[in-house]
Amino acid sequence: MVSPKHINALISLLDDPDAEVYGAVSEALIQNGVGILPELETAWETSALELVQNRLENIIFAIQFNDSARMLQTWLDDGARSLLYGVFIVAKSYFPELDFDTIENKVKIMCHRIWLELNDGRSALETVQTINRFIYGEYGYRIPQQLSPDSHFINCALQSKKVSPPMLSLLYAIVAQTLNLPIYPVKLPKHIILAYMNKQADAQAPNAIYFYINPAHRGMAFSRLEVENALRHEGSNERCSLQPCSNAESVRMLLRSLVFNFERTNHPQHASRYKQLMAQIDQHLANKERE
């Protein structure tokens, strides 16, 4: 383990105007990982130089982001079982103090209120109508006219109720699955919709999916034919199975939209980092295909 004396010696070089020196020092600090964050944060608090503070902020963010990349890899290696946890990792990469239990409890509270209105006698369509009444009515989730990167992070979504289309679809799926309902994300070329599955049917059977749900259209239900017609209307040439996709693919769609919004708002450094997370998922999916 690197000694605090060595770390402080590296920190003392952050005021060097030479970009090459800064690059080497920055890389050396980043490689030490989260264990040196207390020293970096103390240095940021005590430094009187704006240049040093800015450089420390960049290094701290890079270390925290790398830790999120490690969490993402662990999630993928463990089978990417929890969609909520995958979405949480994306948010934690930008809000490093974020706590999973806090997010999970907020989702559970929302789900409990919906659960009180559900019963076994409701049809699949009636169940979705109940969920819609809470998500769009009581809770007021909506897609803002002007999307921001924040609208892709679940903590911001839960607080502001202003949600990007992919985040809204994934939040809807998370709520449904927490309620033990067979509703799963379906990847389209430009969107994520949801499929309400028939638990009693084989996954590939013609009756495996009761209907599709479009959270971006206030949870409206659509048939397979209507989805196919909508894709043709969009001019999409990409073939879609219209089958549920994996949690890893779902999170990748969220990241793709996030990258686009960071690029649109002129934050290329953030966009580049989230492309790295996308690349991790791409590698994971490629490995799964080869198995």
| Beta-strand fraction estimate | 5-15%
Largest sheet: 4 strands, antiparallel
Give the CA-CA distance, first to last residue: 38 Å
What's the alpha carbon Rg, rounded to whole Å? 22 Å
What is the number of helical segments per DSSP (H or I, 4+ residues)? 12
Structural class: alpha+beta
User: Unreliable segments (pLDDT under 50, ≥5 consecutive)?
Assistant: none
Descriptive labels:
elongated; 12 helices; 291 residues; four-stranded antiparallel beta sheet
Overview of this structure, please?
- By secondary structure, the protein is an alpha+beta fold.
- It has two domains: 4-77, Alpha Horseshoe (Leucine-rich Repeat Variant); 83-290, no CATH class.
- It has helices at 4-11, 19-30, 37-46, 50-77, 83-92, 100-115, 124-138, 154-160, 165-178, 224-234, 247-264, 268-290; strands at residues 183-187, 192-197, 209-214, 220-222.
- A hairpin with a 4-residue loop joins strand 1 and strand 2 (192-197).
- The chain starts with a helix and ends with a helix.
- The model has no long low-confidence stretch (mean pLDDT 93).
